[in-house]
Amino acid sequence: MSSPEDIIEAATEVSRILKQIGVSHAIIGGAAGNLLGSERSTLDVDVLVSFPSIQVREAILKHGTKFTGSKTDLKFAYTNDGGTFVPIEFLKDGNEAALSMPDLASTPILTFEEIPLVHPSIIVCLKVGRWAWMSESARPRSRVKAKQDLHDILFLLKWLVENEEKISFEGMETNHREKYTAGFQKLSSQYKLAAELLNNLL
């Protein structure tokens, strides 16, 4: 796991380079939470991009002296001055990707200190959708991931309330809307704090 400080440094640098070379992107997942103030350590920086390609990888390696990359995929590591390695992974946006992800062209984006983030209202939906089934798993790794997701969910719900934001399913496909609604209902039934926060958000 990387510390929030290491994650923020790596996310800031990769975003700077992607903007420099003109690649549309947004930080997603736990790294976005760290940028917004979450203190949970996370494994890597996930970056949502429209067109992951070998050209993007090569451009980052060319423009960023602290990055190392694999020749076989789009996974990278950022090494800070203290010698800490922070893995960075590019995720293809859209439903046609291996993992269904938001479409950068239409999903809400929050610019935080000049870094584009997938809007917290979208990230919390994605995390609730995964938490809802992982929390039922008997696999130890899945249960650990569900616990991490729960921490992130509660942080994001608090952030949304404090910033007077709302969770909206407008524009989402029906199956996604139903999945997230069921996930929030399950969350509310199990955690009083979540229920109180969601009363102000839905």
Automatic annotation (TrEMBL):
It comes from the Eukaryota. It comes from Orbilia ellipsospora. InterPro entries: NT_sf. This is Nucleotidyltransferase.
